[in-house]
Sequence to fold (194 residues):
Amino acid sequence: MSNSPTGGPPLAADPLTRAVLELDEYASGFGWDRPPRLFALVDTAQLRAQEPGLARRLDLDTADGSGDPGAGPPAQVSYTPIEQQELPEGQPLDEFLGTIAWPDAVGGCALTVERLMLPPAAEADVPDGLDEAGLTAWVAEHPRREEVRMTVAVLRDGSREAALRLRSKDAPTEVLTGPDLVPGLARALAATFD
Fold:
């Protein structure tokens, strides 16, 4: 993965990968230990056409969203993330996602969330009989735990992408991307379009 010329997140050819990397970089600007953030993803060209006032406020009123009135049209679709209100405290994430229904103008959605992860080798050490709270506490005390920020995006057509950033390697060049990195969360987000 190559770096962007400005030192920001790595460049990506796929529009959904670009959106995920932009959201990862946005979330990283707030630091760690933050609550989940939910975003609607809208087609930038449709947003400019249907909501020109909003597009101007978001600096998307030019052909490529760059602010350069002489810029040509984008080579492919791009997605504009629109942050939603804060997620309710105390409600499990899967329950909250089950309450969402997106309007037709929303082509996809994305979520950033922080979690603790263990390496696959640690799975053999999990004590039997732990409930969810017990497992969470056990993972939080494990010496090989890693804090990770996951940014997962899905489109109505089933496309998905994710970005993972470890707190121990907190740099734009250390972000791992791929469509199958967080399959459970991707499925939960896709279900918001059913």
In short: The first strand starts at residue 37 and ends at 43.
